Amino acid sequence: MTVEEFRGMPEDAGPVYHELRHGEPVAVTRPKLKHFMIQRNLRELLTPFAESGSCVDTEVAFRPLPEHELWVADVAYVSAERFQQADPEDNIRGAPELVIEVLSPSNTAAEIYEKERLCLANGAREFWVVDPDRLQVKVTTPDGRTVTWQADGEIPLPFGSQARIKVADILRY
Questions:
Q1: What is the pLDDT of residues 59-108, one digit of tens each?
Q2: What is the Cα–Cα distance from 19 to 69, expressed in whole angstroms?
Q3: How far apart are CA 81 and CA 52, in angstroms?
Q4: pLDDT at 97 (0 to 100)
Q5: Angle at 100 between CA 71 and CA 106, to 5 degrees
Q6: How far is residue 77's CA from residue 55's CA, in Å, rounded to a whole number?
Q7: For position 4, what pLDDT does the model report?
Q8: CA 69 – CA 85 distance, rounded (Å)
């Protein structure tokens, strides 16, 4: 199925929504309150360091590949240049520069790994996996470097000057 065909499906309602992965609609469980609170924390922590005109938000739909992929990032950063060039009648083309996923019980390791691989191969400068149960954040870059930050750590941001955010601030709820 193409993105255009997918958009012709009825609007989602209820406990799930759908993403288009490799041309197939996939049901995704809507997040619980703890997940939402962590997303909100991330948006509030990242926004002051983002350049004017950029986008930091939750539930950002993007098309890492143009025809058969339409994914949603829990939290994303899109640079001002890319955000201003985006078609308001479409979704972000390619992966946002920063994609953050907050683990939920419904996530599988294969799903997160695939999303990470797809994002890093299509424009993401960093892919973060926030694990509220282990109190850590794993940060991976396109060159394959991975750093895991524990609850007492501070993560340097891939944008802004020397900005850092505390893992403990991400995980408070």
A1: 999 999 889 999 999 999 999 999 999 999 999 999 999 999 999 988 99
A2: 8
A3: 10
A4: 98
A5: 65
A6: 6
A7: 93
A8: 20
